């Protein structure tokens, strides 16, 4: 059973909005686009295990995607965590193309692609650290001593995996996605006794899910940007940059003749991901580039938002998911 579904990560949603709202000639745009592309590739890689995992018995395994837990003063994040009565399994997914070599002497991953070598941190070190953090988290929350296993999944099926001859254990730790169900079955068969009963298993799953914490941070602060650097207004979805104007409750594009009643929703999504989850009538007018307070009020009322305060002090709460 999938307890925590995989969703487009919040950071990707924020970066997409930021790319839409920065001028094409902004000095930081290329770096931000590069960061977005890396995260999109990572998310695509993580999603590659969803189909193989669908072959597992949904009554036996409980699956958490994009899980973030706090251990002491730090948070740690797991691509995928699988819980059963016998063990917990951390699955770390890497989307790396080319030929990769696991160097056991210097604990690094070397990728060769198009004749160029690039070094990456060893994901086996990463999952080892995650195992230690999860073990401590289990102890802190009074869980039974559940064996914590780990796998590194190389999502690209064309990626060639190599290592030195003495590093024989690598084949049991690093796999491609299609091998995942059979490897989990081997793990299941290798452990004879169940550590958790049905009641305890459900309690563990419930507590893990309860303690997941989303990372909340400002994407503008991350790149040292200000709100004044953003492109404001309602951007045409067809022209990709031309701003719409509002007439008689309809958004119009004078370039491609697009006509839309709700084009402001995408703009408010951008506001939510870039600026914040609360907005006033004045802030909406400023961001959408409209002058009429009554038009802004109609837009806000049409969204059925919760609010607090009254008159000019009324503040509306925004929320958008993927």
Task: Kindly describe this structure.
Helix content is 36%, strand content 23%. The chain is of the alpha/beta class. It has helices spanning 10-21, 29-47, 50-53, 123-140, 170-173, 180-190, 198-211, 219-222, 264-274, 281-288, 293-302, and strands at residues 2-4, 62-71, 74-83, 88-94, 99-103, 108-113, 116-121, 148-154, 160-163, 174-175, 245-247, 250-252, 259-260, 278-279, 307-308, 315-317. The strands form four sheets. Strands 1-2-3-4-8-10 form a six-stranded mixed sheet. A four-stranded mixed sheet has the order 7-6-5-9. It is globular, with a radius of gyration of 24 Å.
Layout of helices and strands:
Layout: E1 2-4, H1 10-21, H2 29-47, H3 50-53, E2 62-71, E3 74-83, E4 88-94, E5 99-103, E6 108-113, E7 116-121, H4 123-140, E8 148-154, E9 160-163, H5 170-173, E10 174-175, H6 180-190, H7 198-211, H8 219-222, E11 245-247, E12 250-252, E13 259-260, H9 264-274, E14 278-279, H10 281-288, H11 293-302, E15 307-308, E16 315-317
Parallel strand pairs: 1-2, 4-8, 5-9, 8-10
Antiparallel strand pairs: 2-3, 3-4, 5-6, 6-7, 11-12, 12-13, 14-16, 15-16
